[in-house]
Amino acid sequence: MDRSTGRLGGLNVSESGGVADAKNLRVKLVLLGDSGVGKSCIVLRFVRGQFDPTSKVTIGASFLSQTIALQDSTTVKFEIWDTAGQERYAALAPLYYRGAAIAVIVYDITSPETFTKAQYWVKELQKHGSPDIVMALVANKADLHEKREVPTQDGIDYAEKNGMFFIETSAKTADNINQLFEEIAKRLPRPSTT
Amino acid sequence: MSSSDPSSPYADDPNPSPSDNQFKSLKLEQGSDSNIIQKDDAIAQEEGEQESLNENSNNRQETSRDQGDRIDSGNVSSVVWRRTNSEVEVEGPSSPSSSGYAGERGSSGASDDDEIHEVANNDGIDGVFDSQASWLPGKRHVNEDDASISWRKKKKHFFILSHSGKPIYSRYGDEHKLAGFSATLQAIISFVENGRDHIKLVRAGKHQVVFLVKGPIYLVCISCTEEPYESLRGQLELIYGQMILILTKSVNRCFEKNPKFDMTPLLGGTNDVFSSLINSLSWNPSTFLHAYTCLPLAYATRQAASAILQDVADSGVLFAILMCKHKVVSLVGAQKASLHPDDMLLLSNFIMTSESFSPICLPRYNPMAFLYAYVQYLDVDTYLMLLTSSSGAFHHLKDCRIRIEMVLLKSNVLSEIRRSMLDGGMHVEDLPCDPLPCSGSVSPHLGQHQQPTDSPGRFREPSVGIGGPDGLWHFIYRSIYLDQYVSSEFSAPLNSPGQQKRLTRAYQKLYASMHDIGNEPQKTQFRRDENYVLLCWVTPDFELYAAFDPLADKGLAIKTCNRVCQWVKDVENEIFLLGASPFSW
User: Fold this and answer.
1) Of B273, B357, B402, which has the smallest distance from its Cβ to A1's Cβ?
2) Which of B77, B121, B351, B472 could form a disulfide with B204 if both were Cys (CB 3.0 to 4.6 A apart)?
3) Per-residue pLDDT reduced to its tens digit, B317-350
């Protein structure tokens, strides 16, 4: 394993990596959000193309990785920390978001409480995360639009106010899942290539 | 780690040498009659004690034995029973309910004699077909509460509540709907505590209500399974341990700050962990033996696994554990660090995804502190756990895992593990026929040593289909020094999960009666009822529990037990983790 290329996240790539690394980014991404909003489902859809409605509750945090190729022929390897949403792990979250280049904060469009929880995570990261962390606000379970309780506009407004990227996804139908990660990849700060 | 030469089977021998073994067993044989008499005495004694206790406590209640303060049992049990099962008739004081093995003598009516049948039958009524194979995690009967008949009919309830009476966990039903019931339990406990006493057990008819107080956390089991008090209490201890593994004991501080603290959100998502632990109480001997079991492997194969784990442990990993389902392949601890078998049970029960890095607490190691567990499945059943005290060690542990995995693949350990899983462990049908002449070469080896000709057409006693020779159905051998046990595979006539659960409970009862601190320690016990002949033999080195056909001959059963011990001895290199055990410190 080549660990010289900044294992703590993409932001280190420019510092420690050479020219080759400018084309092959490696970034640490953390998923945060309330329990049951579908964080693991989003990751599993992205990494394995699967959806398991009966998937187990995440305990602690699981680690997955996936590489995508962008049109400008750069590749981005996401090292994803899928954290548990339960309250008991809230205090341990810094363990996972420390050094993360990207935070994906997820809520469930059918549950206003999860939207509130998402805002808590945004504030937490603004206070304690890396200063130039890229944050995405993800409104998941978009397929359940009949049960929607958080209007799309609320998500858009909040994201805009906090300089975040916003997207509505459905891990179940795979809607916007790949787009989410592609958009994130495009927004990453690139090492200055001459 | 091990200074002695582990390659010699008898060096650093934790078990008696075969000759010792034989000598002791001869003694056993000679003394068997007097042992039986002794046992009868013990039963009488036990029963007597039971009766007097029941009298003292005004029929079916025991508060702590050392303190005389008794509570008015009539009130309390009627409170309990109106809330849980109003149909149950409360037994009169003249008929003391029996505990332990007194039941065999039919001292308290019909229910005792066929108690185990009843368990099996009622499982059917439950509609819960819980076994290793068919059991699915997840909470059932979520919509029930203490008003539902179906909830009241459950054979065994477990509750965790806070000292202010707030529900924390219930095996059945929705915790929030059980707030009133939970408050009642709390009232009972605090009533006794206010009298500066501790409530341990309430007996009402066929039901036992067992209490365990752990600071601000109360645990209660309500059961009509007739399991001994000590067993049920041990089960509550395990459930408490599982909670500590998830949260650490520092959760107590939340109650210091706010006595009305609601703990349920902290345990969010862990229902499966508790239900899987409770399920394993009915089949996993680790839950009452306080020992772990190993996957049978050739000595060299296990050594190869241990060597690479040891390598990693030297690089700052606290514990490195390689397991296959609930069986240990190898385990290694850093210098002076020892892992309690109960902690291993709770850790392996704690469902973790792969690849993951999560905070966990080992209650017997340090109940106050989190460790971090790196978990990776190497195949469907085999997983590696690396524990560290450093929260930033993920990448180091991941590198360690990659190294370990490469070594295990190269040395074929992983394929040996899969083969052993398919072959299974010790089968009673394979018990070598004669204990004396066949040592080593003649006795069948396990795992990869099994010749193809051995498996389908191997020699069986005439009793094909009904267990091993002389009616031997099953055995468990527990090595005291190793903290390990080996049990034979379940085979006919113990095929169904119901029968396996029944036998597990019978062993559990046997274990409790052999380890009853109140009574004089026993060395042997021979019991016959309509389900089994059970034979238990406890020495300073090992404990043997064996189940036979109910018609088995006593003399032959004792001889067979000697053969089992010899057999275990012969293959101990393959069934136990020797030498490298951190338990032997």
Assistant:
1) B402
2) B77
3) 999 999 999 999 999 998 777 899 999 999 999 9
